[in-house]
Recover the amino acids of this structure.
């Protein structure tokens, strides 16, 4: 399966656990929003590593940060702290509601920390009977057993034995359903401020505001999972800032490191004190190499011109997708916010999102799906207008090829 130093796709089937089904082509190089495979074929990247590569591939600021830090210090442990972690934490508190930061390695780990904090806070302050976690159907919060159970897609959590208890799933955007169920037993409500994996579903203003009001009424924490929506993805640095609703706890990852694995849980000083020494931890969390790169990413993404550019690029995508739809009548709606965009397939195209993905790959375009009926776009936040236009032209040809 290898020819000289060349690794072929067939090797995946030999040596990798089969929980993925990767495309046949193997990327070997990326620059900006373009990627090249082993054969030298070029692709426009509208996927961004699933909303991770927020500055594209090999952005100069990230390359400089990793080269600089790689000459200094890669890893310590949490027996001591380090300068990049402290600088990054300070910047995250300055740019958000938060006063305290816990670093992890992924979105799932950040969510695990958020959920453990909620349970520990409730037990400390209110007693063991206040333990219910409310989450929402079609939500996604990670793949650890706790987070996948809180996520609202049973297919991901079934078949692994008894699940963590006292987790309730309600309908997203159902104000009355939430009002009817939430109680003083509820310790936390966990939600995405825009559902990603569940189909790119935005919350109504009423729903977002009601969740906050009901959490206050019943002394429950509001946890926002901003793993996919955070770090400029929606045009605000965090999506909650565009909703006018502030959570008590926020998880962030994916584009926080721009491609380097890092996650963080953000919260207040009052809540953070419940994670006393020894109650939680992470060997790699706050790793100086990851934090140095993330700091460079935050510096670029938090610039007003970057965030304004996300909103401008959203309009280019919407206009381009509407033009494609006018030709082929494939989408029922274009939804989402910023550069987290979902093109929902209409009745005649139900179940064919992956067909669009595969056809796009054959025409030199990388994109995503969000379920079987939504084509998802999460490109670099600084993708050029030329790359947007060229990528949309490739999408046009891909759709034409499967009509």
């Amino acid at each position: 399966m290898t020819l000289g130093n060349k690794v072929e796709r067939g090797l995946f089937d030999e040596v990798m656990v089969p929980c993925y089904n990767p495309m046949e082509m193997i990327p070997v190089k990326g620059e900006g929003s373009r990627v090249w495979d082993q054969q030298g074929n070029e692709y426009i990247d509208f996927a961004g590593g699933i909303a991770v590569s927020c500055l594209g591939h090999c952005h100069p600021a990230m390359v400089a940060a990793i080269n600089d830090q790689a000459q200094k210090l890669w890893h310590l442990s949490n027996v001591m702290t380090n300068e990049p972690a402290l600088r990054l934490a300070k910047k995250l508190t300055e740019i958000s509601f938060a006063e305290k930061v816990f670093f992890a390695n992924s979105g799932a780990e950040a969510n695990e920390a958020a959920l453990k904090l909620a349970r520990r806070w409730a037990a400390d302050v209110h007693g063991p009977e206040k333990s219910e976690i409310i989450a929402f159907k079609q939500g996604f919060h990670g793949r650890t057993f706790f987070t996948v159970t809180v996520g609202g897609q049973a297919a991901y959590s079934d078949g692994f034995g008894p699940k963590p208890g006292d987790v309730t799933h309600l309908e997203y955007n159902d104000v009355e359903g939430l009002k009817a169920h939430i109680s003083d037993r509820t310790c936390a409500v966990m939600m995405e401020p825009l559902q990603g994996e569940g189909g790119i579903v935005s919350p109504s203003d009423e729903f977002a505001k009601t969740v906050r009001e009901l959490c206050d009424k019943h002394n429950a924490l509001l946890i926002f999972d901003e793993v996919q929506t955070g770090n400029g993805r929606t045009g605000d640095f965090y999506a909650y800032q565009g909703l006018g609703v502030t959570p008590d706890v926020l998880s962030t990852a994916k584009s926080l490191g721009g491609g380097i694995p890092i996650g963080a849980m953000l919260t207040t000083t009052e809540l953070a004190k419940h994670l006393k020494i020894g109650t939680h931890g992470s060997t790699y969390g706050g790793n100086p190499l990851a934090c140095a790169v993330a700091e460079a990413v935050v510096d670029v993404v938090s610039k007003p011109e970057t965030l304004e550019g996300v909103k401008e690029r959203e309009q280019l995508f919407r206009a381009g997708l509407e033009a494609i739809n006018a030709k082929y009548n494939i989408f029922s709606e274009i939804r989402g916010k910023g550069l987290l965009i979902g093109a929902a397939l209409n009745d005649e195209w139900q179940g064919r999102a992956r067909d669009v993905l595969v056809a796009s790959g054959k025409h030199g375009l990388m994109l995503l799906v969000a379920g079987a009926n939504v084509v998802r776009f999460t490109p670099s936040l600084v993708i050029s207008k030329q790359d947007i236009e060229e990528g949309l032209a490739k999408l046009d040809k891909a759709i034409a090829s499967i009509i």
